[in-house]
Amino acid sequence: MRMRGWNFCLVLAAGIAVCAAARAQNDSGTVAFANSGAKGAQSAFLHGLAQLHNFEYEDAVADFRRAEEIDPRFAMAYWGEAMTYNHPVWNEWDGKAAREVLERLGASPEDRLAKAPTPREKDYLSAVEILLGEGQKKDRDLRYAEAMGRISRSYPDDVDAAAFYALALLGTTEGVRDERVYMQAAGILMPLFYKYPQHPGVAHYLIHACDDPVHAPLALPAARDYSRIAPGAPHAQHMTSHIYLALGMWNEVVTANEAAMAGVRVALAKEGKTAQAGCGHYNYWLEYGYLETGRQEQARKLVEDCHARAQRATPDTLHNVADPDDAPLLSFLQMQMRYIVDTGDCNGDVATWNVSVGGAPLAQFDQAVERAFCAAGRGDVAAVTKLSSRMDELMPQLPAVFDDAGLPAEDPMRREPMIKRMQIESMRMAAEGRMDEAIAIAAKAAAAEKDLPYAFGPPAPEKPSYELLGELLLKQKRSVDARAAFQSALVRAPNRTQTLGDMQESASGAAQ
Question: pTM of the entire structure?
Answer without folding.
Answer: 0.92
